[in-house]
Amino acid sequence: MGSWRLNHRGDCGSKSKPVPEWKQELFYRAARPVRAWNSRCIKKRPDRRQPFGDFTHLPHPASTTNPESLPSHAMGGEARPVVRDPIALTPVMIEVIYRAHAFAPAATPIILHGESGTGKTFFAEYIHEVSQRVDGFHAFSVGIVAPQLALDELFGHVQGAYTDARKVRAGRIATAGRGTLLLDDVQNLDLGVQKQLLQVLDRGTYSPVGSDRLLTVACRMILAMTEDPDRLMREGQLLKDLRYRLGTCTIRIPSLSERREEIPLLAQRALERCPETTRVSGPARLSEAALAALKEAEFPGNVRQLTTAIEYAYLMARAANVTEIREAHLPDSLCPPLHYHRWGDREANRIAVYRALKRTGGNVKQAARILGISRNAVHAIMDRDRLTSSRS
């Protein structure tokens, strides 16, 4: 019995015209980091550069493959992990990278907004790396702090500022020095604290709690939120004056559903990190069927959910003692069961057959087993849609 295979575009190959091995290998060699300024979207389509633009004139980030190649001032005096280049194949992601490079050299505050799990912290750190600021990167979630403690966390306090203030404490702004400070979940920040933050951005100075002494803000601030800042302003969660002060230096991080073409590369990158995060060795690649299932799956948790799904599949494949992650190793929530009803809706059955074929990499026998039908039933639908395959 021959098998019906999918090529890299999702079309079918046949026995008379099989898919070349180099195309099949593309599924397994997705680990190579993709730099936006070298991506095919820019390099091979010069007529489509607008509105995304060419990145060649923008400052190039330090090498992410060799930490020793980083300048000493970019390391903040301490060895810390280096951010890998973002994967950018879709127009929305190319726009993200373009804006990141455009805003990075300046001290202007930046707004990052996007759904939970899209990677706002990752991109904030990436902007910091591109900017090559003197000190390090610091992240702080202001949304988890009570309003009465938020000012103390941001500005610090002097001795005797209140009952338990027995010694001087530096705030987050002072700790960030001349680096980058990410303030996450700003939409949950009390409006009174937002007003204080507005004054800091306006004047460039602040006073620790319990002191009249003005200190200069040396760090660059990035504010992250889960929704569009204009919508938050209309709903009263974001102070109007603060929104206007932050201006238009905003970057929207797209959800994973908007960048499905990048899922194979993101999945392979997550797989590369599994030996480090799990502290055990395991498979180093994903099967074609697993990649197809990931591209079809829904990820409400975005990149964070994809990463944890790959880690789960990595451990399951390791337990099965196989060299690649297969579709059966993925979490059940990503691959819901397929149903074929003999007397059911014809279109629904056709979709079920197509999904089964895609999950199995075009193997008719396995697809029929998943659906609980005969191979002839699968071939009947394929023939009806003029899809050819070899039969035993």
Low-confidence stretches: 1-16, 22-81
Helices, by number, come to: 15
What pattern of helices and strands is seen along the backbone?
A: EEHHHEHEHEEHEHEEEHHEHEHHEHHH
| CATH topology (fold) name of the largest domain | Rossmann fold
- Please outline the major beta sheet: 5 strands, parallel
In percent, how much strand structure appears in the residues? 5-15%
**Lateral arrangement of strands in the main beta sheet:** 4-7-10-3-11
Can you tell me the CATH superfamily of the largest domain? P-loop containing nucleotide triphosphate hydrolases
What does this protein structure show overall?
- The protein is α/β, with parallel strands linked by helices.
- It folds into 3 domains: 1-29 and 339-392, Arc Repressor Mutant, subunit A (Orthogonal Bundle), CATH 1.10.10; 36-254, P-loop containing nucleotide triphosphate hydrolases (Rossmann fold, 3-Layer(aba) Sandwich), CATH 3.40.50; 258-336, Helicase, Ruva Protein, domain 3 (Orthogonal Bundle), CATH 1.10.8.
- The chain is 38% helix and 10% strand.
- The chain is built from 15 helices and 13 strands.
- It has helices at residues 21-25, 40-43, 91-103, 120-131, 147-155, 172-176, 191-203, 229-234, 240-246, 263-278, 288-296, 302-319, 346-359, 364-371, 375-384; strands at residues 5-6, 12-13, 110-113, 137-141, 156-157, 169-170, 180-184, 205-206, 215-216, 220-225, 250-252, 285-286, 324-325.
- A 5-stranded parallel beta sheet has the order 4-7-10-3-11.
- Helix 10 packs across helix 12.
- It is elongated, with a radius of gyration of 26 Å.
- The N and C termini lie close together (4 Å).
- Mean pLDDT is 79; it is low at 1-16 and 22-81.
